[in-house]
Amino acid sequence: MKRKSGMILAGILIAAFTLTIFMPVSATAGAIKLTYANFPPAPTFPCVQMERWKTEVEKRTNGAVAIQTFPGGTLLGAKAMMDGVIAGQADIGNLCMAYQPGRFVLTNATSLPLGIPNSRVGSLVLLDVYKKYNPKAFAKVKVLTMFTTAPTNIMSKVPVRTLKDINGLDLRASGGALKILGAWGANPVGMPMPATVEALQKGVVKGLFSSLEVMKDFKFAEMCGYVTMTNTVIYPFAVVMNIDKWKALPKNVQKVMDDLIVEQAKWTGNYMDNHVKESINWSKKTHNVEFINLSKKEKAKWDKKLQFLNDKWIADAKEKELPAKKIVKDIKKLISKYDK
Ligand code: DTR
User: Fold this and answer.
1) 210: Cβ below 6 Å to ligand 1?
2) For residue range 74-117, what is the model confidence (pLDDT) as tens digits?
3) Residue 333: how many CB atoms within 10 A of its CB?
4) Which fold has domain 27-150+235-275?
């Protein structure tokens, strides 16, 4: 009898031990509450990836973590994101590095015209560059993931078929992309994406330069009847967390989030690439948008005008004591590594 109850007790202990080891995270449901700020409206890709990350974290922590998401700039706006997270106004925030180009010099090298072909490749390249060079710009936060848009193209109210057509045209962009528009002779107007809707409606700008999923997500196809395919550069993004909040998390929750860093970058890249295709088809079908492909000869002229940008970035970054040439070389190598 004694032996039997001893065995039962041992069995219970083993079962309890196994459960503790193999349960990914065990805590009271929703005990850890986190806020996550985002600047564009809920249906856009930065928010779609945010909801996916929230779902995965909540699932993988068995509900121990509960994340409250704030799309549409309701907690922090586009340019306030990084400082807002550092100050703890939001625990987590999603930012577009192009909106503060001087602050994210190193990682913004991925937005040089180096031939990133899509969002999946861009996202993996960006993460690797971040990991290798560990830029000071992110020293005060925990990076939860990074990703990029698909390459940018011109969406406009008037057709742009040649460099003559773009000359003097008011086009909206942000960060390094402004220099690209300037090099082509356009009149570049800088503003974050959410402000673009009104600028287009009021006629402050005649078009924009961004990845094409916005034709559907912001309904820009209603106003921009033309798209000129330039497939130029990507915009890099980061999701960052307040460092004290990160340090206060239990180790097993940190592990769930660390395991998601690369996975989330890939997921977002794939989502973006597929969604761009959908958006192109939708724009053609629903709004009869004309997609203009530049001839090889014309495209070569456009590309030639951008060559100085890489040299200029290298010169500026060198002044900031960054290993500029090496960074550019690494980005090129990483593009061919992931573009297979
Ligand atoms: N291309 C950048 C970033 C960007 C692309 N799509 C979206 C959607 C929502 C917010 C930002 C972005 C830009 O033009 O701002």
Assistant:
1) yes
2) 999 999 999 999 999 999 999 999 999 899 999 999 999 999 99
3) 12
4) D-Maltodextrin-Binding Protein; domain 2 (3.40.190)
